[in-house]
Write a structure and sequence with these properties.
alpha/beta, TIM Barrel, 17 strands, binds 2-acetamido-2-deoxy-beta-D-glucopyranose, PI-PLC_domain, Phosphatidylinositol-specific phospholipase C X domain-containing protein, phosphoric diester hydrolase activity
Length: 379
């Protein structure tokens, strides 16, 4: 029975001696040792669609938000691709959803600095940024913002300006310190910032404007040179990018995420579920798994479970559960193939109310994962 001893443990663990604590496995790459030796292009990266556009107290739960938690929380929970739209506002480059009057998530520089800080703190992780270049910023303009955010040292520069047949492994990217992959949709020239990769030179995508759960499609949509032609897309060596988010028409041609269907859309059963869609696309691509899967409200489903399945990951390590502080997303614990992860708030609430948190769950305390046992927590 967990009781006061759990509290005592929770609040004293920061001073626990090194011998009592088994540190998380630092040999993992993107949360799993099994991924280190695999090519960046051969594994599946979970993507948070419109990562900086958050539906939480800070935006008054804006309908223009596509995620419940910010980019730092997303990355810590296992997201490895973050997308956003860059717009020009007051002569600065901002991240805005459709238009800066709808949802302005601040400057691109501030967001890149947030990602830079996360990369500093997580030396075994490779992160991909995809920016929609809504107001046609040049490579020099974007490059200047990347410089100001002091993130260019991490940026990977491709060996070619066209599709690459063999990308480095995660371990190679980690060893080289080039753990930031940057794609821009689109960029006419990158001669002043070679690490800014023109998205559709390297990637092809399936359709994204889906408003019916039965209408998800694996067919290539962009770039137009491979549209509708899976064989051409595959043989072009571009990376398969699977959009998987469901919108609903709310009239006047405006679409917003279909939140009511999100558990199915990001889940593993029901019409339009993520697992079936991913498996269907993998088959359609002759066994090639999508390199990227892009979802709204990434913590629902949870989408990461499907990505773990595609990556054959059963030993995920170092993930931090979402904090369970969003009143519109109070699902609490997150269950993945490697266990159930609970937030501290939820655990404390459980203990206060006399409930016994499930034995075998994991919790992140003081920088380490702890496993909840019958009488307390072990690290
Ligand atoms: C860390 O991962 C390596 C490689 O899979 C494994 O051999 C080792 O036992 C792991 N260490 C811990 C402490 O889990
Ligand atoms: C992200 O969200 C978490 C949890 O709400 C918060 O603690 C943190 O300060 C936020 N980070 C940024 C950079 O906004
Ligand atoms: C920029 O980041 C590097 C590490 O990536 C760090 O060593 C350096 O101090 C940073 N520079 C500034 C001005 O913050
Ligand atoms: C679903 O796809 C079909 C065939 O492409 C199309 O005719 C139909 O309009 C789509 N339905 C919706 C709601 O988008
Ligand atoms: C649907 O999937 C969830 C987990 O994602 C599982 O708990 C549930 O049992 C499944 N339902 C059916 C009918 O398979
Ligand atoms: C996972 O296993 C499947 C089935 O063996 C295989 O097709 C796929 O390439 C593997 N993926 C990774 C990332 O290891």
């Amino acid at each position: 029975m967990l009781s006061l001893s759990l509290f005592a443990f929770l609040f004293s663990c920061a001073s626990a001696s090194a011998s009592e604590i088994m540190r998380r496995n630092t040999t993992a790459c993107n949360n799993s040792p099994s991924l280190c030796s695999l090519s960046y292009g051969e594994i599946t990266h979970l993507g948070a669609h419109d990562s900086p556009f958050v539906r939480d107290a800070s935006t008054d739960y804006s309908d223009f938000g596509n995620q419940y938690y910010n980019t730092t929380v997303q990355l810590s929970a296992g997201v490895r691709l973050v997308t956003g739209q860059v717009h020009k506002s007051d002569n600065e480059w901002h991240l805005c959803h459709s238009d800066c009057t709808y949802l302005d998530a601040g400057t691109l520089e501030s967001w890149l600095s947030e990602i830079k800080a996360w990369l500093d703190d997580n030396p075994n992780d490779v992160v991909t940024v995809l920016l929609v270049n809504s107001d046609d910023a040049t490579d020099s303009e974007l490059g200047a913002v990347f410089e100001s955010a002091n993130i260019t040292d991490y940026a990977y520069t491709p060996s070619s300006t066209s599709a690459i047949s063999s990308w480095p492994t995660l371990q190679e990217l980690i060893d080289d310190g080039t753990r930031l992959m940057t794609f821009i949709a689109s960029l006419s020239s990158n001669s002043n910032a070679a690490y800014l990769m023109d998205e559709f030179a390297y990637i092809w995508e399936n359709p994204y404007d889906v408003t019916s759960a039965s209408n998800f499609s694996c067919l290539p949509d962009r770039p137009s040179t491979v549209s509708g032609d899976t064989a051409a897309a595959l043989s072009s060596n571009r990376l398969p990018f699977m959009n998987h988010f469901l919108d609903q028409d709310i009239g006047l041609g405006i679409q917003e995420p279909d939140v009511s269907a999100i558990d199915t859309t990001n889940g593993q059963n029901g019409t339009g579920n993520l697992l079936t869609s991913a498996d269907t696309c993998k088959s359609a691509y002759s066994g090639r798994q999508p390199t990227f899967i892009l979802v709204d409200f990434f913590d629902k489903g949870p989408a990461i479970d499907v990505v773990d399945k595609l990556n054959n990951v059963t030993d995920a390590t170092g993930r931090v559960a979402v904090p369970d502080t969003n009143k519109e997303d109070d699902s609490g614990s997150t269950t993945t193939s490697s266990g159930t992860y609970v937030g501290l708030t939820e655990l404390v609430d459980d203990v206060k109310s006399g409930a016994n948190p499930s034995v075998g769950n994991w919790i992140w305390v003081g920088g380490d994962w702890g496993s909840i046992l019958g009488g307390g927590i072990t690290f």
